[in-house]
Amino acid sequence: MRAFVSKVPTASGGTAVRVLWKQGRRQVGMQYLGSAHTEAEIALLVTAAHQIINAGQEPLPGVSGDQPGGGVAAGTGGARVLSTTSAVLWDTLGRVWCQLGFDSAVPDRAFKALALARVIEPTSKLDSARVLGEVGAWAPTNTTIYRCLRRCQDRGYREALASACWAHAGARASLLLYDVTTLYFETDTGDGFREPGYSKERRLEPQILVGLLVDQAGFPLGVQAFTGSEGETKTIVPVVAEFAKLRGLESFTVVADAGMLSEANLTALQAAGFDFIVGSRIARVPYSITEYTRTHEAVELADQQVFVEPVLMGTKKEGFHRFTAVYQYRHARAMRDLRTIGEQVAKAEATIAGTRKAKKARFVTTTDRATLALNHDLVASAKARAGIKGYITSLPVAGCPGRPVPDGVDPVDPLTVITAYHQLFEVERSFRMSKSDLRARPIFSHVRDSIEAHLTMVTAALAVSRTIQARTGVSIRRFVRTLKPLRAAQISIGGHTVTVPPAIDPETQALINAATTAEQV
């Protein structure tokens, strides 16, 4: 009696694999193993059939265990894994990269590999070869990496990517959000570009300023680097003007925080034809609120109550500019402000009493006799302003006394101004992603071209990350952790080398589908 492996076509277009036992020409037994549609699955079924036929037999001399008639190789089941790759993750990132138009904007294989490697695992550029090797993607050599950084500047990759980003998001970018941050360097000396300057984190290392322009969803549209000693308020006009010039835009509305509030900035933006919404620092209770409490006999403000009043900036010599201020009172903010004021008063009193180490404290003043005292007027002023947040805009706002709306212009609702300003958390989120998820700092490059290329690469990775997060609703870290373990295997089996895809559960497949489904504009 002899055994044979039989492969026959099925009605569904697949191949059925069976083991047949014959005595002479007569079939005396049959075992059905299953049907398959791919070469890899068929090879696995055939190997399983040979295992059944050769069960209990030793391999013939000179015949390997994964060949027909060769028995079963110990511990391998007749198949050997040659390599594994995270093909699902890499292919998904590559599809998003292509959908953003980056393949055509920057046809540079090395740049794409380095930018997507930063999405998978942010590390140094030289270590990116390891990251790419782990996922089974092509990795550039060290020489190719250095050449790529030079090409990035010489061929204007940043401008090309910015154009692709605008083509992707421009149709729905009704607001442009701007903010600035600092990136520090692992060095002790400045060089004219990397210089010590004001740092919110109180760092002393040389740094650069980075201005980032995003849409209302946090998708990056433009980035520009400035000397580390440059003032933050001096960055917004160059970034906005350069962006408008490259995009051919005559006007749009830019939103920025109170750090950008300076008369020079606002008048320059207005002179260039751009509208703006910026945060306002409140040094005293606004006139509109003072009048309201006076006429209503000190009635408490209602939660989320809004006030609008005109603002005049400039000088008689240089001319005045008329803007609109929008103020809103929120009860929850007032409670938080009053709690903070109470803590600061307690610290001030402890400093005055000498029970707390003398340091700069709010509400502490020095009298004529050089003694410390609590400034009760400042405390009263701070409490009166608790819960009030201000916004300055060049847009015509409905209900603003003394600033009539021009004919044919639709006024903006005050709540629209407030909502637009609160979208600034998206640019702050993009900065956090750049610094944490994409690890944009510290920067170890010391040549300016390499630093600029690094920022371009991080911005491209940020665009991919924000797109995936917007489409899937999950963080980029969670997305990578979910897809990276799905590894395809290259297997040597039955004299063939086949690729076996990973098993993907329905929930993960839905995540992949969401990430690669382009938005309908």
Description:
This protein has 521 residues and is an alpha+beta fold. Helices cover 39% and strands 22% of the residues. It has 17 helices and 16 strands. An 8-stranded mixed sheet has the order 7-6-5-8-9-14-11-10, with helices on both faces. Strand 10 and strand 11 form a beta hairpin. Helix 7 packs parallel to helix 15. The chain is elongated. About 3% of the residues have low confidence.
Brief overview, please?
With 521 residues, this protein is an alpha+beta fold.
Structural class, from secondary structure content? alpha+beta
Arithmetic mean pLDDT: 83
- What kind of sheet is the major sheet? 8 strands, mixed
Dominant shape = elongated
What value does the Rg take, in angstroms?
33 Å
**Helical residue percent band:** 25-40%
Number of strands: 16
- How large is the count of helical segments? 17
Report strand order across the widest sheet: 7-6-5-8-9-14-11-10
Strand content: 15-25%
- For the terminal residues, how far apart are their CA atoms? 69 Å
The low-confidence runs, each spanning 5 or more residues with pLDDT under 50, are 60-77
Main traits of this protein?
alpha+beta, eight-stranded mixed β-sheet, three-stranded antiparallel β-sheet
